[in-house]
Protein backbone atom coordinates (compact mmCIF):
# COMPACT_ATOMS: atom_id res chain seq x y z
CA UNK A 1 0.00 0.00 0.00
CA UNK A 2 2.81 2.42 0.91
CA UNK A 3 4.60 1.59 -2.34
CA UNK A 4 1.48 2.34 -4.37
CA UNK A 5 0.99 5.62 -2.55
CA UNK A 6 4.61 6.62 -3.19
CA UNK A 7 4.27 5.70 -6.85
CA UNK A 8 1.18 7.85 -7.15
CA UNK A 9 2.94 10.79 -5.54
CA UNK A 10 5.80 10.45 -8.04
CA UNK A 11 3.44 11.01 -10.96
CA UNK A 12 3.23 14.50 -12.43
CA UNK A 13 -0.32 15.89 -12.51
CA UNK A 14 -2.26 14.53 -15.47
CA UNK A 15 -3.27 18.05 -16.54
CA UNK A 16 0.40 18.75 -17.31
CA UNK A 17 1.13 15.60 -19.33
CA UNK A 18 0.58 17.38 -22.63
CA UNK A 19 3.57 19.63 -21.87
CA UNK A 20 5.91 16.64 -22.00
CA UNK A 21 6.99 16.05 -25.63
CA UNK A 22 7.39 12.33 -24.91
CA UNK A 23 3.64 12.07 -24.28
CA UNK A 24 2.79 13.13 -27.84
CA UNK A 25 5.41 10.98 -29.56
CA UNK A 26 5.86 7.29 -30.25
CA UNK A 27 8.49 6.56 -27.61
CA UNK A 28 11.35 4.36 -28.82
CA UNK A 29 11.96 2.18 -25.79
CA UNK A 30 13.57 -1.17 -25.13
CA UNK A 31 10.96 -3.89 -24.85
CA UNK A 32 12.13 -4.77 -21.33
CA UNK A 33 11.29 -1.20 -20.23
CA UNK A 34 7.87 -1.38 -21.90
CA UNK A 35 7.15 -4.56 -19.95
CA UNK A 36 8.30 -3.00 -16.66
CA UNK A 37 6.54 0.36 -16.96
CA UNK A 38 3.99 0.94 -14.22
CA UNK A 39 0.47 2.02 -15.02
CA UNK A 40 -0.70 5.44 -13.93
CA UNK A 41 -3.03 5.57 -10.96
CA UNK A 42 -4.60 8.76 -12.28
CA UNK A 43 -5.54 7.64 -15.80
CA UNK A 44 -5.72 3.90 -16.61
CA UNK A 45 -4.07 3.03 -19.90
CA UNK A 46 -1.25 5.54 -19.45
CA UNK A 47 2.13 4.21 -18.33
CA UNK A 48 5.08 5.94 -16.71
CA UNK A 49 8.79 5.59 -17.43
CA UNK A 50 10.96 7.79 -15.18
CA UNK A 51 7.92 10.06 -14.58
CA UNK A 52 7.34 10.44 -18.35
CA UNK A 53 3.72 9.60 -19.30
CA UNK A 54 3.66 7.16 -22.24
CA UNK A 55 0.84 5.42 -24.09
CA UNK A 56 2.28 4.82 -27.56
CA UNK A 57 5.61 3.27 -28.50
CA UNK A 58 7.78 2.47 -31.52
CA UNK A 59 9.73 -0.83 -31.55
CA UNK A 60 11.89 -2.81 -33.95
CA UNK A 61 12.56 -6.51 -33.49
CA UNK A 62 12.53 -10.04 -34.84
CA UNK A 63 9.34 -12.10 -35.06
CA UNK A 64 9.75 -15.13 -32.78
CA UNK A 65 6.20 -16.46 -32.86
CA UNK A 66 3.09 -15.88 -34.93
CA UNK A 67 -0.64 -16.54 -34.58
CA UNK A 68 -3.24 -15.64 -37.16
CA UNK A 69 -6.86 -14.82 -36.49
CA UNK A 70 -9.66 -13.70 -38.78
CA UNK A 71 -9.11 -9.99 -38.16
CA UNK A 72 -5.50 -9.72 -36.96
CA UNK A 73 -2.07 -11.25 -36.66
CA UNK A 74 -0.45 -11.77 -33.27
CA UNK A 75 3.34 -11.45 -33.51
CA UNK A 76 5.85 -11.99 -30.73
CA UNK A 77 8.61 -9.40 -31.25
CA UNK A 78 12.08 -9.74 -29.70
CA UNK A 79 14.55 -6.83 -29.69
CA UNK A 80 17.21 -8.60 -27.63
CA UNK A 81 15.99 -7.25 -24.27
CA UNK A 82 12.61 -8.97 -24.11
CA UNK A 83 9.62 -10.29 -26.04
CA UNK A 84 6.28 -8.52 -26.34
CA UNK A 85 3.07 -9.50 -28.08
CA UNK A 86 1.92 -7.19 -30.91
CA UNK A 87 -1.63 -7.27 -32.29
CA UNK A 88 -1.46 -6.22 -35.95
CA UNK A 89 -4.87 -5.70 -37.54
CA UNK A 90 -5.53 -6.88 -41.07
CA UNK A 91 -6.59 -4.30 -43.61
CA UNK A 92 -9.95 -5.09 -45.21
CA UNK A 93 -8.41 -5.35 -48.67
CA UNK A 94 -5.99 -8.08 -47.48
CA UNK A 95 -8.84 -10.33 -46.33
CA UNK A 96 -9.67 -11.26 -49.90
CA UNK A 97 -8.66 -14.80 -50.87
CA UNK A 98 -5.28 -15.28 -52.48
CA UNK A 99 -7.01 -16.69 -55.57
CA UNK A 100 -8.47 -13.27 -56.35
CA UNK A 101 -4.97 -11.84 -56.51
CA UNK A 102 -3.82 -14.64 -58.80
CA UNK A 103 -6.86 -14.20 -61.03
CA UNK A 104 -6.24 -10.47 -61.16
CA UNK A 105 -2.63 -11.15 -61.99
CA UNK A 106 -3.54 -13.48 -64.89
CA UNK A 107 -6.02 -10.94 -66.24
CA UNK A 108 -3.45 -8.17 -66.02
CA UNK A 109 -0.84 -10.34 -67.71
CA UNK A 110 -3.18 -11.16 -70.59
CA UNK A 111 -4.09 -7.52 -71.05
CA UNK A 112 -0.40 -6.65 -70.96
CA UNK A 113 0.32 -9.20 -73.67
CA UNK A 114 -2.47 -7.76 -75.83
CA UNK A 115 -1.11 -4.24 -75.53
CA UNK A 116 1.77 -2.72 -77.50
CA UNK A 117 5.25 -4.02 -76.79
CA UNK A 118 6.97 -2.03 -74.03
CA UNK A 119 3.83 0.00 -73.27
CA UNK A 120 2.92 1.06 -69.73
CA UNK A 121 0.12 -1.05 -68.27
CA UNK A 122 -1.39 0.68 -65.26
CA UNK A 123 -3.36 -2.37 -64.13
CA UNK A 124 -0.20 -4.49 -64.02
CA UNK A 125 1.68 -1.83 -62.04
CA UNK A 126 -1.18 -1.50 -59.55
CA UNK A 127 -1.27 -5.28 -59.13
CA UNK A 128 2.46 -5.35 -58.36
CA UNK A 129 2.13 -2.48 -55.90
CA UNK A 130 -0.75 -4.24 -54.16
CA UNK A 131 1.22 -7.47 -53.91
CA UNK A 132 4.19 -5.58 -52.44
CA UNK A 133 1.91 -3.97 -49.84
CA UNK A 134 0.37 -7.31 -48.99
CA UNK A 135 3.81 -8.91 -48.64
CA UNK A 136 4.93 -6.15 -46.25
CA UNK A 137 2.00 -6.91 -43.93
CA UNK A 138 2.43 -10.71 -43.84
CA UNK A 139 5.44 -11.85 -41.84
CA UNK A 140 6.98 -15.15 -40.89
CA UNK A 141 9.16 -16.18 -37.98
CA UNK A 142 12.61 -14.63 -38.37
CA UNK A 143 11.40 -11.54 -40.25
CA UNK A 144 12.27 -8.06 -38.97
CA UNK A 145 9.18 -6.12 -37.90
CA UNK A 146 8.66 -2.49 -36.97
CA UNK A 147 5.54 -1.65 -34.97
CA UNK A 148 4.01 1.60 -33.81
CA UNK A 149 1.04 1.48 -31.52
CA UNK A 150 -0.47 1.94 -28.08
CA UNK A 151 0.48 -0.06 -25.01
CA UNK A 152 -2.24 -2.17 -23.39
CA UNK A 153 -2.47 -4.64 -20.53
CA UNK A 154 -4.82 -7.55 -21.23
CA UNK A 155 -5.29 -10.43 -18.80
CA UNK A 156 -2.17 -9.39 -16.93
CA UNK A 157 -0.04 -9.41 -20.09
CA UNK A 158 1.54 -6.28 -21.60
CA UNK A 159 1.06 -5.97 -25.36
CA UNK A 160 1.02 -3.45 -28.20
CA UNK A 161 -2.07 -2.64 -30.28
CA UNK A 162 -0.52 -1.59 -33.57
CA UNK A 163 -1.62 1.45 -35.53
CA UNK A 164 1.10 0.89 -38.14
CA UNK A 165 3.37 -2.08 -38.84
CA UNK A 166 5.48 -3.39 -41.70
CA UNK A 167 8.19 -5.89 -42.53
CA UNK A 168 11.65 -4.34 -42.72
CA UNK A 169 14.17 -5.38 -45.36
CA UNK A 170 17.58 -5.10 -43.74
CA UNK A 171 19.93 -7.63 -45.37
CA UNK A 172 23.18 -6.08 -44.06
CA UNK A 173 21.68 -5.07 -40.66
CA UNK A 174 22.33 -1.39 -41.32
CA UNK A 175 18.96 -0.32 -39.90
CA UNK A 176 19.30 -2.51 -36.81
CA UNK A 177 22.78 -1.15 -36.06
CA UNK A 178 21.55 2.42 -36.49
CA UNK A 179 18.60 1.67 -34.20
CA UNK A 180 20.83 0.21 -31.47
CA UNK A 181 23.13 3.23 -31.64
CA UNK A 182 20.27 5.74 -31.49
CA UNK A 183 18.37 4.28 -28.54
CA UNK A 184 21.05 4.87 -25.85
CA UNK A 185 21.29 8.49 -27.03
CA UNK A 186 17.52 8.92 -26.71
CA UNK A 187 17.59 7.47 -23.22
CA UNK A 188 20.37 9.81 -22.07
CA UNK A 189 19.01 12.95 -23.70
CA UNK A 190 15.30 12.43 -23.16
CA UNK A 191 13.87 9.45 -21.30
CA UNK A 192 16.31 9.47 -18.36
CA UNK A 193 15.76 13.17 -17.74
CA UNK A 194 12.94 14.18 -15.39
CA UNK A 195 9.55 15.37 -16.52
CA UNK A 196 10.01 19.04 -17.57
CA UNK A 197 7.65 20.44 -14.96
CA UNK A 198 8.54 18.02 -12.15
CA UNK A 199 11.86 19.59 -11.12
CA UNK A 200 10.77 19.41 -7.53
CA UNK A 201 7.95 17.63 -5.77
CA UNK A 202 5.14 16.73 -8.22
CA UNK A 203 2.10 18.84 -7.65
CA UNK A 204 3.96 21.63 -5.80
CA UNK A 205 3.67 25.18 -6.97
CA UNK A 206 6.51 26.64 -9.03
CA UNK A 207 6.38 29.88 -7.03
CA UNK A 208 6.07 30.86 -3.42
CA UNK A 209 3.29 33.02 -2.01
CA UNK A 210 5.44 36.12 -2.59
CA UNK A 211 5.83 35.36 -6.31
CA UNK A 212 9.37 33.96 -5.99
CA UNK A 213 10.32 30.59 -7.50
CA UNK A 214 10.06 27.77 -4.98
CA UNK A 215 13.20 26.05 -3.77
CA UNK A 216 12.11 22.80 -5.45
CA UNK A 217 11.87 24.42 -8.90
CA UNK A 218 15.26 26.14 -8.45
CA UNK A 219 16.73 22.84 -7.34
CA UNK A 220 15.61 21.28 -10.62
CA UNK A 221 17.30 24.07 -12.57
CA UNK A 222 20.48 23.74 -10.53
CA UNK A 223 20.57 19.97 -11.06
CA UNK A 224 20.16 20.32 -14.82
CA UNK A 225 22.77 23.10 -14.97
CA UNK A 226 25.37 21.01 -13.16
CA UNK A 227 24.49 17.88 -15.15
CA UNK A 228 24.94 19.72 -18.47
CA UNK A 229 28.22 21.27 -17.34
CA UNK A 230 29.71 17.90 -16.36
CA UNK A 231 28.70 16.34 -19.66
CA UNK A 232 29.85 19.18 -21.91
CA UNK A 233 33.21 19.68 -20.17
CA UNK A 234 33.76 15.92 -19.65
CA UNK A 235 34.69 16.51 -16.01
CA UNK A 236 36.16 13.43 -14.31
CA UNK A 237 36.22 14.60 -10.67
CA UNK A 238 35.64 17.81 -8.75
CA UNK A 239 35.08 19.33 -5.34
CA UNK A 240 32.04 21.45 -4.42
CA UNK A 241 33.92 24.75 -4.55
CA UNK A 242 34.90 23.98 -8.17
CA UNK A 243 31.29 24.22 -9.37
CA UNK A 244 29.58 26.52 -6.89
CA UNK A 245 29.97 29.48 -9.28
CA UNK A 246 27.56 27.74 -11.67
CA UNK A 247 24.72 28.22 -9.19
CA UNK A 248 25.40 31.88 -8.39
CA UNK A 249 22.93 33.16 -11.04
CA UNK A 250 20.17 31.33 -9.15
CA UNK A 251 21.08 32.75 -5.74
CA UNK A 252 19.12 36.05 -5.99
CA UNK A 253 15.96 34.04 -6.76
CA UNK A 254 16.19 31.78 -3.73
CA UNK A 255 13.55 32.17 -1.02
CA UNK A 256 14.87 32.74 2.52
CA UNK A 257 15.88 29.62 4.44
CA UNK A 258 14.38 28.52 7.72
CA UNK A 259 16.47 28.55 10.87
CA UNK A 260 17.21 24.81 10.75
CA UNK A 261 18.26 25.03 7.08
CA UNK A 262 20.58 27.93 7.83
CA UNK A 263 22.18 26.01 10.68
CA UNK A 264 22.85 22.96 8.52
CA UNK A 265 23.91 24.85 5.39
CA UNK A 266 26.15 27.54 6.86
CA UNK A 267 29.60 27.73 5.25
CA UNK A 268 32.67 29.90 5.78
CA UNK A 269 33.11 31.28 2.23
CA UNK A 270 29.75 31.21 0.45
CA UNK A 271 26.24 32.27 1.45
CA UNK A 272 24.36 29.68 3.43
CA UNK A 273 21.54 29.32 0.89
CA UNK A 274 24.02 28.74 -1.94
CA UNK A 275 25.70 26.00 0.06
CA UNK A 276 22.33 24.46 0.79
CA UNK A 277 21.32 24.51 -2.90
CA UNK A 278 24.66 22.98 -3.93
CA UNK A 279 24.52 20.21 -1.33
CA UNK A 280 20.98 19.25 -2.35
CA UNK A 281 21.98 19.26 -6.03
CA UNK A 282 24.93 16.95 -5.35
CA UNK A 283 22.69 14.65 -3.31
CA UNK A 284 20.22 14.28 -6.19
CA UNK A 285 22.99 13.56 -8.70
CA UNK A 286 24.35 10.88 -6.39
CA UNK A 287 20.92 9.30 -6.02
CA UNK A 288 20.53 9.00 -9.78
CA UNK A 289 24.07 7.58 -10.15
CA UNK A 290 25.58 10.46 -12.12
CA UNK A 291 28.10 11.07 -9.30
CA UNK A 292 29.70 8.97 -6.59
CA UNK A 293 32.34 9.41 -3.93
CA UNK A 294 35.10 6.85 -4.05
CA UNK A 295 36.23 7.58 -0.48
CA UNK A 296 33.92 8.95 2.19
CA UNK A 297 36.06 11.51 4.00
CA UNK A 298 36.11 15.17 4.96
CA UNK A 299 37.58 15.90 1.54
CA UNK A 300 34.43 16.01 -0.59
CA UNK A 301 35.77 14.67 -3.87
CA UNK A 302 33.07 13.64 -6.34
CA UNK A 303 33.69 11.35 -9.31
CA UNK A 304 31.60 11.60 -12.49
CA UNK A 305 30.51 8.04 -13.20
CA UNK A 306 30.67 8.02 -17.00
CA UNK A 307 34.05 9.82 -17.04
CA UNK A 308 35.81 7.73 -14.38
CA UNK A 309 38.09 5.59 -16.54
CA UNK A 310 39.37 3.60 -13.57
CA UNK A 311 35.84 2.62 -12.55
CA UNK A 312 34.90 1.62 -16.10
CA UNK A 313 38.09 -0.45 -16.41
CA UNK A 314 37.44 -2.18 -13.09
CA UNK A 315 33.90 -3.10 -14.13
CA UNK A 316 35.03 -4.35 -17.53
CA UNK A 317 37.83 -6.45 -15.98
CA UNK A 318 35.43 -8.05 -13.48
CA UNK A 319 32.98 -9.02 -16.22
CA UNK A 320 35.72 -10.21 -18.58
CA UNK A 321 37.45 -12.38 -15.99
CA UNK A 322 34.40 -13.81 -14.24
CA UNK A 323 32.50 -14.54 -17.46
CA UNK A 324 35.09 -17.23 -18.14
CA UNK A 325 34.06 -19.10 -15.01
CA UNK A 326 31.64 -21.96 -15.55
CA UNK A 327 29.11 -20.42 -13.17
CA UNK A 328 28.75 -17.30 -15.35
CA UNK A 329 29.60 -18.74 -18.76
CA UNK A 330 26.00 -19.09 -19.95
CA UNK A 331 24.21 -15.92 -18.81
CA UNK A 332 27.10 -13.70 -17.75
CA UNK A 333 27.69 -11.94 -14.42
CA UNK A 334 24.76 -10.79 -12.30
CA UNK A 335 24.69 -7.11 -11.42
CA UNK A 336 24.92 -7.84 -7.68
CA UNK A 337 28.03 -9.97 -8.24
CA UNK A 338 29.57 -7.15 -10.29
CA UNK A 339 28.70 -4.62 -7.58
CA UNK A 340 30.27 -6.76 -4.85
CA UNK A 341 33.46 -7.36 -6.85
CA UNK A 342 33.89 -3.71 -7.86
CA UNK A 343 33.36 -2.59 -4.27
CA UNK A 344 36.20 -4.88 -3.18
CA UNK A 345 38.51 -3.77 -5.97
CA UNK A 346 37.74 -0.10 -6.40
CA UNK A 347 35.37 1.63 -3.96
CA UNK A 348 33.44 0.42 -0.93
CA UNK A 349 30.99 3.31 -1.26
CA UNK A 350 29.96 2.67 -4.88
CA UNK A 351 26.16 2.67 -5.16
CA UNK A 352 24.08 0.39 -7.35
CA UNK A 353 22.69 3.43 -9.17
CA UNK A 354 26.21 4.53 -10.14
CA UNK A 355 27.04 0.99 -11.26
CA UNK A 356 23.93 0.87 -13.46
CA UNK A 357 24.93 4.17 -15.10
CA UNK A 358 28.41 2.81 -15.76
CA UNK A 359 27.02 -0.45 -17.18
CA UNK A 360 24.73 1.43 -19.56
CA UNK A 361 27.66 3.55 -20.70
CA UNK A 362 29.85 0.47 -21.32
CA UNK A 363 27.02 -1.22 -23.18
CA UNK A 364 26.45 1.83 -25.40
CA UNK A 365 30.20 1.79 -26.15
CA UNK A 366 29.95 -1.92 -27.13
CA UNK A 367 32.40 -2.97 -24.41
CA UNK A 368 29.84 -5.28 -22.78
CA UNK A 369 26.38 -6.62 -23.58
CA UNK A 370 23.39 -7.44 -21.40
CA UNK A 371 22.07 -10.98 -21.72
CA UNK A 372 19.05 -10.28 -19.50
CA UNK A 373 17.77 -7.53 -17.24
CA UNK A 374 20.52 -8.11 -14.66
CA UNK A 375 23.25 -10.17 -16.40
CA UNK A 376 26.20 -8.85 -18.39
CA UNK A 377 29.02 -10.40 -20.37
CA UNK A 378 31.80 -9.22 -22.66
CA UNK A 379 31.31 -8.76 -26.39
| Average residue-wise pLDDT | 80
Shape: globular
Element-level helix/strand string: HHHEEEEEEHHEEHHEHHHEEHEHHEE
Largest sheet: 5 strands, mixed, barrel
Strand order of the largest sheet: 4-5-6-8-7
- End-to-end separation in angstroms reads 42 Å
Helix content: 40-55%
Strand content: 15-25%
The strand count comes to 14
The number of helices is 13
Rg computed from alpha carbons, rounded to a whole number of angstroms: 27 Å
Sequence stretches where pLDDT stays below 50 over 5 or more residues: 1-9, 98-116, 198-206, 261-270
Structural class: alpha+beta
Describe this entry's structure for a reader.
- The chain is of the alpha+beta class.
- The chain is 40% helix and 20% strand.
- It contains 13 helices and 14 strands.
- A 5-stranded mixed beta barrel has the order 4-5-6-8-7.
- Strand 2 (47-49) and strand 3 form a beta hairpin.
- The longest helix has 19 residues, at 215-233.
- The radius of gyration is 27 Å and the shape is globular.
